[in-house]
Design a protein that fits this description.
Blueprint lengths: L2 H20 L9 H8 L1 H23 L17 E5 L9 H4 L8 H10 L8 H10 L3 E9 L11 H12 L9 E4 L10 H8 L3 E7 L23 H10 L8 E3 L13
Parallel strand pairs: 1-2, 1-4, 2-3, 4-5
Helix pairs in contact: 2-3, 3-6
The structure holds magnesium ion.
């Protein structure tokens, strides 16, 4: 064996070892994003602050029947008011799953975790939903957890009942028609704008609440879905922050999402 070939083998071994150690099987114990959500008072204070602002805005937006938080929704004065909430890290706090699941992430790992654990709330959400319903506002839960059948199970969309159970475990009652998953209908893609417009056919949407930029802004993902035709970029997302400036904290309420989300594709 010549020295060149030996060197190549040594290099390959080093690179392989490097790859293995570059992919943690769990979140590092000192990962600041996970630690912050799990342990800091700041996180809970911030989510309560955001839900508190939204709660105070309820009365104003219910009364102003010309208002909609869906750009382009007009002539909705006669429709009943509704709010749209994302689910993960908006209603259900998944930090216990996030710090413990074996990487890489899969939707099924989250599904199995949820079947075995009692859901935890994002601080402030229960009080907000109670206030919204007392004000006569319908509450929709829109998640990008996908409807998908597992080969070893019979249910076509077991994820839907799991999400409903999780929300109910927080003390929030919810009926199935107010929970919308990706792929639940053929035209309900991972792009949420279609589902928002479906709700807007029958409701005046006064608020949108989420932890991901794409919970609010159409076509804000790198991995895009119909009706979007091209990937977002860091520049397009930055421009959209300004384009929709009037909505932030005024109909759109964005919670912190440091552990995961569409933003991670733009590093
Ligand atoms: Mg979320």
């Amino acid at each position: 064996m010549n020295t060149t070939r030996i060197a190549a083998m040594v290099l390959a071994a080093v690179m392989t070892a490097g790859c293995a150690t570059d992919v943690p099987t769990h979140a590092p114990e000192d990962d600041l994003a996970h630690l912050w959500v799990k342990t800091s008072a700041d996180y809970a204070a911030l989510t309560r602050q955001i839900y508190g602002v939204a709660q105070r805005d309820l009365e104003r937006f219910v009364a102003d029947t010309s208002w909609s938080a869906i750009p382009g929704q007009t002539d909705a004065e006669h429709l009943p008011p509704a709010v749209i909430l994302d689910v993960d890290e908006t209603v259900i706090n998944n930090v216990s799953f996030q710090v413990s699941f074996e990487r890489p992430f899969s939707d099924r790992k989250l599904e199995m975790w949820d079947r075995e654990h009692v859901a935890e709330p994002v601080p402030g959400v229960v009080e907000f939903i109670t206030a919204a319903r007392e004000a006569g506002v319908a509450t929709f839960f829109m998640t990008n957890r996908p409807c998908e059948k597992y080969e070893d199970e019979t249910e076509q969309c077991p994820q839907k009942q799991t999400v409903i159970d999780g929300i109910r475990e927080l003390g929030i009652d919810v009926e199935p028609e107010f929970v919308m998953l990706a792929l639940e209908r053929p035209d309900w893609t991972g792009e949420k704008v279609g589902r928002r417009l479906t709700i807007a056919e029958n409701y005046r949407v006064i608020m949108v609440i989420g932890d991901d930029f794409a919970d609010f802004v159409p076509c804000a993902r790198k991995r895009f879905h119909p009706p979007c035709t091209e990937p977002a970029t860091r520049a397009s997302r930055a421009a959209d922050v300004d384009k929709y400036a009037e909505y932030w904290g005024n109909g759109w309420y964005i919670l912190p999402g440091p552990m995961h989300g569409s933003w991670t594709r733009f590093r």
